[in-house]
Amino acid sequence: MSSRTNRTTKRPWARRTPFFYGWVILGVASFTGFISGPGQTYGVSVFVDPMIEDLGLSRTLIAGIYAGGSLTAAASMILVGRLLDRYGARVVLMGATALFGVALLWMSNVNSPFDLYLGFAGIRTLGQGSLTLIPTTLLAVWFVRRRGRVMPFFFVGSAASQAIFPPLIHKLVTEFEWRGAWVALAFLVWGALLLPVILLVRRSPESVGLLPDGDTTDSESDPDLSQQTAPPMSHEVEWTLREALRTRAFWLLLLTAAPQPLIGTALVFNHISLMDSRGLDSGVAAAVLSVLAPSALVGSFAAGYFLDKAPNRYILAAGQVILVIAMLFPLVIEHSWQAFLYGGLLGLSGGCLMTTHAVIWPNYYGRANLGTIRGVGATSVVAFSALGPLPFAFLFEQTDTYTTALLVFLALPAAGIVAALFASPPRKAPGFA
Q1: Hey, which end of the chain has fewer CB within 10 Å, N or C?
Q2: CA distance 241 to 250
Q3: How many CA atoms lie within 13 A of 324 on its CB side?
């Protein structure tokens, strides 16, 4: 009896929970998405006007610096992905959280355009990029069969962040001015996220003697077998980045990743102006934005349900189709209800496409090098989200209408539909290297 007790106490405590420990990982991942708020555009936007007034910089200059910082963040995602594969989510997420707080503190002391560029690069790399890439990759490692159903719960945290952080930041700016608000956010990030990451995050189910999804083997009932090496991931086909780069699906998936961040960011960035061009006042336009988050959640959960039941590329194509329909709506909007329907479709497509991309990469290329492979995809997403608003604004200034921009950029999701349909799962031939 004592021998059995000793063997039991030596087992990792994550394995001794009365439920699958992946559900704890899901909770921490979703909370991480929530805490990323100060590095997201909806969080940063609250600071723009106070910083313009205090620093004496033009809105155009700050927008350009923000785009430059976001592009720098995009390039860094490849490095973050490699570190994730090498050191695991616990170490990298702990480092990203600590550095995110440092970047927020830096923002409280900016006085020049170069200071601002470094700050934007930091918070976009660590907040918007890393605190999205790391937790979604971690979930894909802990769940395989249930990926589609589990991944939407990560976006619950993101949706809550979008609803809570803008008014919270506004209150902090009102109480402590914009520099004090950045300091408060730094301590909020450290205080809320560091301890859960240190105590609760584990690299993979195999690292604590479990299998993905809470599946069991004979070792669960045999204490002697439970002390052996954790079960391997031999049931999955694993790809390196070099191997993935040589598959057609990799490049097609990258193409399908471009439309939503580029067009979605552009439409939201120019939303008030776009609605004004259709004769709707700013109050209605602001109200339309409120439907984006809940409709994105609907799209996320709907996609998650079908991703576990149907070929993933069909769900990816469906998301692009919804985006095409959403882009056509501003051409015909005349009444408020049409604007709200447009907002719902835009959110629906965003939720569908974000969830599908979070699931399809590990489904196609396995878990062993997922951080590195997804890091390349994240680079594309962050880069396109940074570039999106500029061409829309430019075409509007040239033509005094958004019609040209909408019709020109319809080509992107149209190409995304075709790319998705042809992005069948790659097959790894024996001896392929």
Answers
A1: N
A2: 10
A3: 16
Q: What is the mean pLDDT of residues 41-57?
A: 85
Contact (Cβ atoms closer than 8 angstroms) between residue 262 and residue 412:
yes
Q: How far is it, in rounded angstroms, from Cα 101 to Cα 98?
A: 5
| Cβ contact 36:158 at 8 Å | yes
- At position 20, the amino acid (one-letter code) is F
Q: Single out the residue of 291, 385, 413, 408 nearest to residue 347, CA to CA.
A: 291
In angstroms, the CA 153 to CA 265 distance is 22
Handedness of CA 371, 304, 410, 61 (dihedral sign): negative
d(CA 340, CA 416): 25
Q: What average pLDDT does the segment 125-139 reach?
A: 92
pTM of the full structure: 0.80
- Which residue has 């004979």 as its token pair? 218
pLDDT tens, residue by residue, 134-193: 999 999 999 988 898 899 999 899 888 888 888 899 899 999 999 999 999 999 999 999
d(CA 257, CA 73): 17
Q: For residue 126, which phi and psi values (nearest 5 degrees)?
A: -90, -35
Average pLDDT over the chain, rounded to whole? 86
Distance CA 261, CA 332 (A): 23
Helices of type H across 223-335 = 241-245, 248-257, 259-269, 271-277, 282-289, 292-307, 312-328
State how far the Cα of 139 lies from the Cα of 131, in Å rounded to an integer: 13
For the chain, residues classed under CATH 1.20.1250.20 are 15-214, 241-422
Spatial distance between the Cα atoms of 25 and 155, rounded to a whole number of angstroms: 14
Is the pLDDT score of 386 beyond 70? yes
pLDDT for 301 equals 93
428 in Cβ contact with 243 (< 8 Å)? yes
| CA-closest candidate to residue 355, choices 84, 154, 93 | 154
Distance CA 96, CA 128 (A): 11
Q: CATH top-level class for 241-422? A: mainly alpha
pLDDT at 219 over 70: no
What is the per-residue pLDDT across 1-26, written as a single tens digit (0 to 9) for each? Answer: 444 444 444 567 778 788 899 999 99
Token pair recorded at residue 207: 């690292």
Residue with tokens 């699906």: 249
Q: Return the CATH architecture of domain 15-214.
A: Up-down Bundle (1.20)
* Tally of CB atoms within 10 A around 355: 28
Amino acid identity at 416: G
